[in-house]
Amino acid sequence: MDFVNWCNFVLNICIKAGHAFPLEEISLRKLLFAELGITQVSKHPGFHYSTYEIGMFDAMKELKMVGLMEDYEKANYLWKVSKAGREYVADMTHLWWTICQEKLEPEHEQILRVVNRLSQHTATDHAWLEMAAPQSLVSELGVQSFSEIWPFARELEQWGFISGIFNLAGTASLQSTYRGLVWETRHGFTLESKFIDDLVADWETTSVEFKSVQYTDTAGQKAELIKDVLSLATTKVSGQRWLIIGFDDDTHEYCGPPNPKLTQNHLEQLLQEYTIPMVKVRYQVVDYRKGPVGKLEVFRDAKHLPYKAARSLGSRNDKRHIVEGDIYVRHGSQVQPPTPEELQDLQEEGDQARLNP
Questions:
Q1: Which helix (H) or strand (E) holds 354?
Q2: Which candidate, 320, 298, 325, 336, places its Cα nearest to that of 222?
Q3: Mean pLDDT in the chain?
Q4: Residue 196 lies in a domain
Q5: Is there a contact between 209 and 215 (Cβ–Cβ < 8 Å)?
Q6: Strand 241-245 relative to strand 208-211: parallel, antiparallel, unpaired?
């Protein structure tokens, strides 16, 4: 369990205890032991001065720093879940998005990563933080003296990405914070989730298609996929083109992970066989806040316009079937053959691109 998950674990325990009531150390300790399945404290290593106790106080302090906990009536030994803590506990990505939007320069990022590596300590069922000594930081960063990193460390501390004890000798012991660990360890996940949420909000457009699941076991399933990819590649529209897998067509809600048989290699084989010129794609299964999502990016090269079906596929009784030479475009969210005017524009665009590579 890393420290970010540990903080969420502690926050959930506090909420279970009843957010209207303040918690003190003894109460929180008992709740933690119970949740961790430790029923006989006397048979467990002493809680006082243990990493469990350190981790408990670290979590409460950091949750307070990001506004998820608060002192009860300004008594720093009594804690209460804040309104934000109750709102965010079910889905932390909203808070993480605010943190991950912060831009750090390479010097700041390098120091942050080293501090996090030296300061964060994890175990199976908990996590805690320790101060990283100045000499360890200097050694890990490969600098001659702490003075080289002092101004960057000071700024990170002012921004809340690390905490530290800065002394008059010009050195400092530094420690991770919840904010800094979120920025490093949840950055990609959070930005990816926000990107997909934004696509879902607009739903299907000229450049975005959603699927609840995508199989390629039958001719009809393959033909439908080829038709979707051809239409995304051929349609003239600015920006990136996406086929997102894992969302219900009716509710627009996340409905589960993509078909594991769908891979980059498998898609390339299908497109090589059934599209001409071959449509280039990039497929990834990405971590989304509710579960894995299939993310297929379709690339358009004007020199290859108009993209066509290379072979017929599927039964003519199946509306998903494709015929050799077919061309498809998107009219809003609908996949259809191009109008005569659209076809002429596509052909002229391709001819012009081939003349001026």
A1: helix 340-355
A2: 320
A3: 91
A4: no
A5: no
A6: parallel
- 171 shares a domain with 237: no
Distance, CA of 281 to CA of 198 (rounded, Å) = 21
Residue 34 has pLDDT above 90, yes or no: no
C-beta of residue 305 within 8 angstroms of C-beta of residue 312: no
CA 308 – CA 119 distance, rounded (Å)? 56
Q: Within this chain, do residues 172 and 217 fall inside the same structural domain, yes or no?
A: no
What value, to the nearest 5°, has the Cα angle with vertex 342 and ends 220 and 326? 25
CB-based burial label for 49 (10 Å; 0-12, 13-18, 19+): exposed
CA dihedral 300→305→311→317, nearest 10 degrees, is: 80
Residue 277 lies in a domain: yes
138/270 same-domain check: no
Q: Which residues contact 222 (CB under 8 A, 6 or more apart)?
A: 216, 270, 274, 313, 314
pLDDT at site 39: 57
Q: Is the pLDDT of residue 43 over 80?
A: no
**pLDDT tens by residue, 69-115:** 987 665 556 788 899 999 999 889 989 999 999 999 999 999 999 99
Cα angle 223, 227, 228; round to 5: 120
Domain CATH number, residue 206: 3.30.950
Q: Tokens 């303040």 correspond to what residue?
A: 22
Number of structural domains, the chain?
2
3: domain CATH number is 1.10.10.10
Domain's final residue, options 132, 155, 185: 185
pTM of the model: 0.77
For residue 224, give the H/E element and its range: helix 219-234
The domain of 102 spans 1-185
Comparing 254 with 48, which gets the higher pLDDT? 254
Closest C-alpha to 244, from 214, 275, 278: 214
Q: What pLDDT is stored for residue 44 in this prediction? A: 47
pLDDT of 204-252, one tens digit each? 999 999 999 999 999 999 999 999 999 999 999 989 999 999 999 999 9
Higher pLDDT, 196 or 72: 196
Counting every residue written for the chain, the total comes to 357
Does residue 194 belong to any structural domain of this protein? no
